[in-house]
Task: structure prediction
Amino acid sequence: MTDLTWLQTVLVVILLLCVLVGTLPVVNTGLQFLALPLHAFRNHYGKAAPYHPNVAVIIPAWNEGAVIGPAIERLLQLEYPAERLRIFVVDDASTDDTPAVVAAKSAAHPGRVVHLRREKGGEGKAHTLNHGLDVVLADPWTEAVLIMDADVIFARDSLRKLSRHLADEKVGAVTAYIAEGSRDRNYLTRFIAIEYVIGQLSARRVQNVGGAIACLAGGAQLHSRANLEAIGGRIPTGTLAEDTMTTFEGQLRGRRMVFEPHAVVLAEEPRTIDSLWKQRLRWARGNVQLTSIYKKLWFRPSPDHNLGSFSFGLAWFTILLLPAFMLLAAAGMLALLLLHSDIAEFVFRFMWIAAACIYIFSMLYSVQLDPRIGRQSWREAIMFPGLGALILMAIAIFPWLFESALLALGLPVTDQARITWAVIFYLWGPISMLGIWLARAVEPLPGGRFFAGLLLYICGYGSLLCAITVDSYIKEWRRADASWIKTEKIGRVDS
Amino acid sequence: MTAAPSHESEVEEIAADARRERRLVPQALLSLAVVVVIVIVRELLLR
Result:
């Protein structure tokens, strides 16, 4: 730094801070996995006890004829006292054979399977759930309510494993581990399976440790009656993230939410980038909306709940602002390159070595958390950051490899070439997001699915989520139509 | 519908799940050990 003027030195420090802030998502991932072992000692099992409340199951259903039958059958096979379980299917004006399937189940199991029909549908999941809640909460029999999706398949012991936490009256709701369970998996469902291990078995355990849960899985959430009544007996409407808002509202009223990693629920997940995009765009826009709704909550610790804690805020905003962090780091690196290429190279190497260590640690840990998913999706675990990022990690760890490879390929190794490559490397984050946008664009074309998959393996699954988050900013800014778009499910999960 | 197991079985199941959570520690140590080995190998190769 001896050849820098004081102004350049100040600029370098500012740029280094930009890069540091830009790497917060990677740092947060590292902290998350480092905190994960704490769940071995700080969990809710000490206060759990065998407990079988009267459970009203609410299944919102719109054109779920292909999946609703097996889901009901599985519920009837759960290891749970039969007299303590009633199933209410809220048929949201379905136009397929959903009414007939549910009517048949209702006739076969009178009093245990109830068909609730909404003649006017299409208002969204929250409205459909509220129709069911009005019915079940009007009956004093109901002591707990299980909200689930029509396509999920519960493991036989899962409801018991959820309800045992409600033995502690301070617990308002419990959520299960939603695992990808399609029998004919494709590359995308295998990526999603790994994402769910990271996002649930790791992140939600850490949230258990921190005492603040970000979101009860929409596919399997068991609420105590008291919790639902405390939030007005209704699922909040007017947002695309009704599950997250319900989770927040319960905690703001002083109730604890628990993630139960050993209650497993299998779900069918999107098989194309476009359908995944639509699903996640809904979630991402919902999170943007909630960030604004709860603007007075963030980073303001409270004695009543932990949603205002620094760690929870950091985790929330590193996901919400992931694209902004990525762009900030790229811009900072590019400016550093122009100002002092040696410093830029050192920072690049340090950043990517740190990223490589966190990636190896987190992926090795993840495949152990759910060995079934680990066996099925180990390739996607390796390729999770994308081939491009893996190459950058390898270059950072073994720098001589890159120049050797260039020489072997007969490419020039001049200062100009080094600068050109550096620009590409530093801008890899934004480039990979554009690659994902391209993947979505080519997917519907003939042979497009192959190229879309190829682009996903090159650019990485994180870039896909990042690109969707950017789209959510744009859609929210434009106040685009926020109608609830259902993800198509056709019954690929075996019961 | 399958009947729920006995109270004692469920108590034991809760204890077993709590014990399974203890596996998080060796799993973390194993993952960390691999990272440390890679870092050491890198340092040895750089010399």
